[in-house]
Amino acid sequence: MRVVQTIDALKEAKKKLAGSIGFVPTMGALHKGHLSLIQQAKQENDHVIVSVFVNPTQFLEGEDLESYPRKEEADKKICELAGVDILFMPSSDQMYEKDELKIAAPAIRGYILEGERRPGHFDGMLQVVMKLLNLSGAQKAYFGKKDAQQLVLIMQMVKTYFMNVQIVPCEIVRDEDGLALSSRNVYLSEEEKSRALSLSKSLKRATKCIMSGELDTKTIKNKMLEVLKETDRVEYVAIVDREFNNLKQIELGNTIILVAARVGKPRLIDNLWI
Ligand code: PAF
Question: Does residue 235 have its Cβ closer than 6 Å to ligand 1?
Fold first, then answer.
């Protein structure tokens, strides 16, 4: 595996790869969720490039940019063992220039739910993902469904800018109790971890309702809120179609149920695609 820190070194390393490239962009502190993206990329491509870059432009003032978990040595080992060809770990100076051109998230879909709570977050995320996709030269790029709104916006960006890459949505990976894996889970104490399970439990409750024939989204949301009482604060429960329009009735095959809540310090998000 080649570990490269500069754009020039990445370009050089890529010259040695023949065949298709799968790309997995990350902010590091890799866990089993990232590993499953890497494994899928390995299966579907001749080569895999992973990036680890804690992107400053997607953090808002007062968010955890400084304290965001950084585990560079462990990340290198994980990528090496997973058979990654190139690990790209750039600095901010490599990625950004002064007064540069910006990508803006769409005015509605980029500013509801996560975008409403974190205004500007998706602008920075799209900016860096555009750069990373272009640098990787990959035919396919792998993103988890856990960040559902991020995934949908990236797909929209690829469509809007006629980008020549296929975005592959990948399933959410959970621990044995059902908690969706996230690098920010390290912030949770044991007690908070058990209360954090109410997010996935609320989604299970929604599944149960739907299986029993309940399709009214207001009723389903109310059932979910009962389970979410264990969290410190529910930020939203939303039931939308795959384009993030609110739904009154569940549409099987075209629905995402999303939840965001605070448990202790971190904001947790989870969702279910049905
Ligand atoms: O999901 C993430 O880890 C980040 O938002 C991403 C896509 C790597 C861009 O910084």
Answer: no
Same domain, 137 and 34: yes
- The CA distance from 68 to 186, in Å, is 10
Q: Which helix (H) or strand (E) holds 213?
A: none
DSSP state of 173: P
- 165 and 69 in a common domain: yes
Domain boundary among 170, 196, 225: 170
- Give 150 Cα–ligand 1 centroid separation in angstroms: 8
Note the pTM of the prediction, 2 decimals: 0.97
Q: Which residues span the domain enclosing 128? A: 2-170
- Expressed in angstroms and rounded, the spacing between residue 248 Cα and the centre of ligand 1 is 31
Number of domains present in the structure of the chain = 2
Nearest of 177, 190, 203, 221 to residue 270 by alpha carbon: 203
pLDDT digits (tens, 9 = 90+) for 138-183: 999 999 999 999 999 999 999 999 999 999 999 999 999 999 999 9
